[in-house]
Amino acid sequence: MPALELGRQRDRAAILGLFVTTALVVAVDSACDAPPRFPSAELQERYKGTTIFAYKSIVQYVCRPGYTRDVNVGDSLTCGRGNKWYGPEEICIPKQCTYPGEPANGRLILPEKFSFGSAVNFTCNTGYRLVGNPQIWCVVKNGVVMWDRDIPICEAIPCSPPPEIANGQHNGAGKELFEYGASVTYTCNTVKRGEKPFSLVGDASIFCTTTDNVNGVWSKPAPKCKVVNCEQPSVENGQLLSRYRAEYVYGDTVVFDCNFRYTLNSSDASTCSENGLWDPPLPHCLLSSCGDPPDVHNAVKAKLAGNLFPVGTVITYECWEGHQFSPGEDTWHITCLPDFTWTETPHSCERIRCPDPAIRNGKPLGVPESQEHYEYGDILEVTCNDGYAFKGRSRNVMLQCTSDGSWNPAVPECFPEPRCPRPDTAHGKEVYQSKKDYTVGTQLRLECDTGYVLRGQDMTECQADATWAPPLPFCDKVCGPPPQISNGQHSGLGKEQFSYGTEVTYSCAEGLSLIGDATMYCTSDDGVNLAWSGRAPECRVVRCPRPMVERGRMTPQRFTFPYGAVVRFSCDEGFALHGDAESRCLADSTWHPPLPSCQPVQCFQPSRQEDLVIYRLKLWYNVNETLGYFCKRDGHQTSSSETTCSVNGTWVPPPTCKKRDTCEKILRNREAFQCGIPLAELKTLLEVQKLYLEIQKLEKELRTTAYG
Ligand SMILES: *[C@@H]1O[C@H](CO)[C@@H](O)[C@H](O)[C@H]1NC(C)=O
Ligand SMILES: *[C@@H]1O[C@H](CO)[C@@H](O)[C@H](O)[C@H]1NC(C)=O
Ligand SMILES: *[C@@H]1O[C@H](CO)[C@@H](O)[C@H](O)[C@H]1NC(C)=O
Ligand SMILES: *[C@@H]1O[C@H](CO)[C@@H](O)[C@H](O)[C@H]1NC(C)=O
């Protein structure tokens, strides 16, 4: 695009006019009007005044003052097609000023360039102020580009001398200049002993500063030296925590704390201020808690945490178990009001009541007339009327009034009760009845009339099936005490009644002998009346004499011979016991049977036998005595034999003859009849023989009992 299009359009009116006037002279594209103007360059002198330039004509420019050629572009434009100028846009560029430098304590606000026509600004560091113009320009003077003036200077901002104060001084007294940043410190004069000291009121140090960056000012007014006293601090319902002082001066700080249940309503610390007042004003200790919640009878305070009760605190009272404030209400809340009093506290908790237990066919037991109602914990015994019982057959039930106002167990019902048969014990009577009606559970004790004894258990109870268990007893006749004996006693001592079959045993005092049966029985002779069997024994001193049997021995060997003692006797060899071998000591101190004696053994004449013929026949023979004999047989005799009487009284060998047979004996009897012996005499002889045989038999028996 042609670079000069814009310039051409700007001069359209002139060009149009020119075109109209030259149209007849030149071709349409063969001329340009005046070349464009540039801020940095101007047409050479020779083109001035020319208004029409031919096609392909060239114009040259020169730089305006303050500008110089741009070596990269040409310095001319050419009139080209379309009546336009072609060439560079800018032919010259501005010249540069030198770096201006910076002031001490200040600086250059850096521009993009230091070229002709531009300006640079200066500023001072904090605490310094600018003297001169803050801005300089790059200008052309006498054809040379240069800064239009000198750079400004920065000088320190000064303060006026610090103010003097009464009763004090500052430490800058010797100085004259107080520049930005300088500080001075004030102190108060000391006072003589006894005088009140000065307090430095305000900041001790001030420093030089500025608000407009031009003029210096002191940071604060100078402090004052004043005598400042604050009143003794005291706070009602509180105490001073900080150290006590006799006097409080400016700057002293006091700290307070409040008593229990009081709270500070503002800062806990106050400082003695310049005007002699506490700042902030001394706090107040204000009540901040209700008092202890009152105790309530039979109630506890639930969830009581801590002992501070700020406004709005809610305390809950809970009644003890089985108690309530009013029916159904066992809790009560109180609240701490803004005036630190409690809302209404409850009256005490009352015991919960149980209803009157109305029992059909039953009643409570042992309830005093004055009892109007039943309360929690009351224990009530209820019973059924006669002939009635509770289920389970119990007559009495204990009810307890529970914490919820009901009876435990629930009030039971009375049902008609079964009964046991009335006991009808002959010779007996009831001595105890737990109940009079023989209903289930009735306990009876039975006793027999005098002279009778109770058989079975004396206590019985009516069972649920209406029978007595254990079974009813019966009364049986008894014996009275057995007879007493002197010097002895019986085993039933102390008892009065002795039932049938009872055995008592008597015993004697030591050394005495019990004479008679030691035991007696309670027995009956007629099946109706009872009596003791037999007589009671006696206790007596019984001593039998020592039994003496000559040529004899006694067994067992013993030395005392009380009643009943039994001794046995035997004889030395060659002697035979005459009498009983055993004797017993009797109650009359005699031996019975009488003591035997030991007699020399003798042999009785040998038993008479048919056919046996003995020489020297005697009734008795001594031991060792020999006897000669022989046997007759059919008229002639056998040779004679001898037999000896032995120490045991028998004949050895026994003298016998061979016996004939029975038939022979009978025949011999016939012979006797044929002997011509009168019959009466024969009878007597036979009687004698029979007697003799009986004697022999008796003797044999006696011997058998004595030695057997
Ligand atoms: C210099 O100061 C003038 C006037 O205060 C301002 O207009 C100009 O922008 C400043 N130049 C620079 C480079 O700060
Ligand atoms: C503290 O309480 C006192 C007495 O009630 C009252 O005069 C004072 O203004 C209270 N101060 C504040 C900070 O509430
Ligand atoms: C009997 O004879 C025997 C022997 O000859 C003799 O030991 C004994 O002592 C005699 N007895 C009597 C009682 O003579
Ligand atoms: C008697 O003594 C003799 C001899 O000494 C003897 O054989 C006989 O058995 C005794 N008889 C009795 C009954 O002891």
Automatic annotation (TrEMBL):
It comes from the Eukaryota. Residues 1-27 form the signal peptide. The keyword Zinc does not apply. CDD domains: CCP. Keywords: Disulfide bond, Glycoprotein, Repeat, Signal, Sushi. The keyword Nucleus does not apply. SUPFAM superfamilies: Complement control module/SCR domain (SSF57535). Disulfide bonds join 258-285, 448-475, 479-522, 571-598. Gene3D superfamilies: 1.20.5.3730, Complement Module, domain 1. It holds the Pfam family Sushi. Residues 30-94, 95-156, 157-227, 228-287, 288-351, 352-416, 418-475, 477-541, 542-600, 601-659 form the Sushi domain. This is Sushi domain-containing protein. It comes from Amazona collaria.
